[in-house]
Amino acid sequence: MAFTICYAGFRSGFFTIDHIHTVKQLIEKCHEYNRPLAVTFIDYEKVFDSIEHWAVFHALYHYDLDSLVENFNDLQRTLQQLYDACMWVGLKMNMSKTKVMANIYNVTNPSATVGSEMLEIVDLKTRLYNQCVLPTMTWTLTQEAVYRMRVAQRTMERVMLGIKLIDRVTNDQIRSRTKVKDVGNRITKLNWS
């Protein structure tokens, strides 16, 4: 069976870095044109122990799966087709590690179910904020400094969502959409102030 150039894994002369660059460009263009985007990261259970790679390629080629879809309904349909194709060759998705990363231009409460399990939808900006920015904002602080940190945090959340002060969106509404952890509560919880 001849494979197209889109299959880079386990092939001489093909590199996954090219595909990572393509995904990065896709993310940038969707952001530039305010288009919805959901990227799915799929993990398989014991993939190297349980199956021949040619069988996976054959299943993907046989089912002719879409790699780009327009909405969460199409995403769910495509993921279900991929799940069925993989089950056909004896490959099982690890649902606890399979994630969907969505941008802010998607629907309010996106969801995707594969088989009988709901996939976790991850917002990249929130995850980066909670893991990279928030830890650097916590040290011994006065009440005034904690207040200033909260103001800075709210400003960052507005930037994450593309909301301006003139839009008159409350901080509670913004926090419910970003789901970031409050810096003041984190400082109090860690007793660093």
If you had to describe this structure to a student in words, what would you say it looks like?
The chain is mainly alpha-helical and 193 residues long. It has helices at residues 16-32, 47-50, 53-63, 72-88, 124-133, 143-161, 171-178, 183-190; strands at 38-41, 99-102, 113-114, 117-118, 120-123. The protein has 8 helices and 5 strands; from the N terminus they run αβαααββββαααα. Strands 1-2-5 form a 3-stranded mixed β-sheet. A two-stranded antiparallel ribbon has the order 3-4. The chain is elongated and about 60 Å long. The protein folds into 2 domains: 16-118, no CATH class; 126-190, no CATH class. The model has no long low-confidence stretch (mean pLDDT 75).
Distance between the termini: 64 Å
Query: What is the number of strand segments?
Result: 5
> What is the makeup of the main sheet?
3 strands, mixed
Uncertain segments are none
For the biggest β-sheet, the strand order reads 1-2-5
